[in-house]
Write a structure and sequence with these properties.
Strand content: 5-15%
Number of helices: 15
CATH class: Alpha Beta
CATH topology: TIM Barrel
Radius of gyration: 22 Å
Strand order of the largest sheet: 1-2-3-4-9-10-11-13
Bound molecules: flavin mononucleotide
Mean pLDDT: 96
Largest sheet: 8 strands, parallel, barrel
Helix content: 25-40%
Low-confidence stretches: none
Distance between the termini: 19 Å
Shape: globular
Number of strands: 13
CATH superfamily: Luciferase-like domain
Structural class: alpha/beta
CATH architecture: Alpha-Beta Barrel
């Protein structure tokens, strides 16, 4: 018997459609960025399109220079934002982000279960080890990646133990006997580890529905971590080969961990600039990025490669031999490795390099074209085994977001690749985990 694979579709709530200079458009509604109506409108429309989930990435630092010309990383606290969406939606999954490097596990465990109650079991946790922000948490340097992942592993185990320390089944509400909860089912965890000391139990009971875990780093240890704990990964795959390689590797690693090959759903970021014609889409992309100064792109490339590039001519080919030998002091090895891969394959000129998605677009898969072009690419990658779904990052305008929801998603439904209605009520249901 063959089972038909179905796509999973999420939408980023990072308001990517306002990035670059798109927030300056008259219809951008940028003034709503720090209120709930802006997001509720998007959430309702995403739910009407039956998407699996809304995904709210997060950082815990701000670059004032970047914020002078665009929203950058300024944002509401993701979990508080998600709480306001839980009340205004009924079925769509809601994924929030919490850092294992900077937050205490007790607080994270509690916030997530609180959201899980408020949403009726629709919460997911994007587990991040963070890229920056250490000085906001009493640290001078970012801990090395190995340490961050070891901490993430312990942190995640502690959060899961806390969720089990006061399970939904402990609740009795037995008016006749006066038993509110079964005391035997509520137990401390007494965790004494390298990174956290937590007694427990949690004082928020678990809501019953399991909370799927998302993860993003795709370095060797990042993948190992994903294979052990993740139900889905937010992947940076600039081309189809990167997606196939990542997905095959994660499937093999999951099997080696005693999990099923399907247990880590690979969901690449899908950056799309959509218009009626390809020319209009190209214009939209160019207009969105026309103000992005060369200096900023150069600084981004320098950060990714941990080397100076500013003395080089625009037409200078960048070759592997020019690059520092790993390991680097870089924020994300995932992104650095993808730039190395590009340079090894193509030796682009400096000007080409800084305008490629690997530098300009956080290495996400980029489609600049019509809704049909987007559908063709999604189907191609899905069928080639480069993705189990997508996390949409519509760019350039509200129009691009609208076309994604109103044209791309219905076309996927028409092809039988995506649901026409929800069959379950929790995020785990939507992801096919139950
Ligand atoms: C596609 C992608 C998205 C990420 N999103 C976030 C995020 O929203 N917030 C955050 O703090 N870190 C984020 N990260 C950083 C990762 O959690 C991780 O700290 C970083 O990539 C280092 O791991 P690596 O060496 O495996 O790449 C992201 C990384 C990738 C690759």
């Amino acid at each position: 018997m063959t089972t038909t694979r179905h796509l999973h579709v999420g939408l980023s709530l990072a308001a990517t459609w306002l990035s670059g200079s798109a927030w300056r458009r008259a219809d951008s509604q940028v003034e709503g960025l720090f209120g709930s109506d802006f997001y509720i409108d998007v959430a309702r429309r995403a739910e009407a399109a039956k998407l699996d989930f809304l995904f709210r990435p997060d950082t815990l630092f701000l670059d004032p220079a970047m914020t002078a010309t665009g929203p950058g990383f300024s944002s509401l606290d993701p979990s508080i934002l998600i709480a306001s969406l839980a009340r205004e939606t009924q079925r769509i999954g809601l994924v929030t982000t919490a850092s294992t490097t900077f937050y205490p596990p007790y607080v994270v465990a509690r916030q997530l279960q609180s959201l899980n109650w408020l949403s009726g079991g629709r919460i997911g946790w994007n587990v991040v080890t963070s890229l920056d922000g250490q000085r906001n948490f009493g640290l001078n340097d970012m801990p090395p990646a190995e340490q961050r992942y070891a901490q993430a592993e312990e942190f995640t185990a502690v959060v899961r133990q806390l969720w089990n320390s006061y399970p939904a089944e402990a609740l009795r509400f037995d008016r006749a006997s006066g038993q509110f909860a079964d005391r035997q089912r509520i137990q401390p965890i007494n965790h004494h580890g390298d990174y956290c000391q937590v007694e427990g139990p949690l004082n928020t009971p678990a809501a019953g529905a399991s909370i799927p875990l998302f993860q993003a780093g795709a370095s060797d240890i990042g993948r190992q971590f994903a294979a052990r704990i993740a139900d889905a990964t937010f992947a940076a795959t600039p081309d189809i080969d990167a997606g196939i390689e990542l997905r095959n590797d994660l499937r093999a690693r999951a099997l080696a961990q005693g999990r099923s090959a399907d247990s880590v759903r690979v969901m690449p970021g899908f950056s799309c600039y959509l218009a009626d014609t390809r020319d209009q889409a190209r214009e939209l992309f160019q207009a969105t990025h026309a103000d992005t100064e060369r200096a900023r792109l150069l600084a981004k490339a320098e950060g990714l490669l941990d080397m100076e590039l500013s003395g080089l001519a625009d037409d200078q080919p960048i070759t592997l031999a020019m690059l520092p030998t790993p390991p680097h002091r870089v924020r994300s090895r995932t992104h650095t490795e993808l730039v190395y891969r590009l340079i090894e394959r193509e030796s682009p000129t400096l000007d080409e390099l800084i305008r490629r998605p690997e530098v300009m677009g956080s290495a996400h898969w980029l489609v600049v074209g019509t809704p049909d072009d987007a559908v063709t690419e999604i189907v191609e990658r899905f069928e080639a085994g480069a993705a189990d779904g997508i996390i949409a990052l519509p760019g350039g305008s509200n129009e691009s977001l609208n076309r994604f929801l109103d044209q791309v998603v219905p076309a996927l439904v028409e092809r039988g690749l995506f649901r026409s209605d929800y069959s379950g009520s929790t995020l785990a249901d939507h992801l096919g985990m139950n």
